[in-house]
Amino acid sequence: MIKQKRGPFLMGQPMADPNGMEIRSGRVFYGWWIVLTAAIGLLFSYAPIFVFSFGVFVRSFVKDFHSNRTQISLAFTLASIMVSVGSPLAGRLVDRYGEFWASS
Fold first, then answer.
1. Whether residue 33 sits in one domain with residue 3
2. Domain residues for 11?
3. Cα gap 73→89, rounded to integer Å
4. Which of 63, 80, 84, 96 is the most buried (most CB within 10 A)?
5. What's the domain count of the chain?
6. Same structural domain, 13 and 58
7. Residue 54 to residue 75: CA distance in whole angstroms
8. Other Cβ atoms within 10 Å of 72 Cβ, number
């Protein structure tokens, strides 16, 4: 039985087939697991939840907080600056003391 050549998502050493086709093992390449894990992490991170959906909620924020768009946007800008300043500090704490201590 001749196996067909598989795509780039599978890993393994290619073996020569008598008909000149390439045969690979059925395991998924390790790098694609890294990409999948990173995509899931980004899906539930700060940016998709807060940054990308902020514009949808501006009108209701203005109404609920009895404010205007300028003040709401200023609050959003300050939150973004705090995340930008705090992320390297949090990363350094995690590197130095570990995830458990830095998150508590």
1. yes
2. 1-44
3. 25
4. 80
5. 2
6. no
7. 11
8. 19
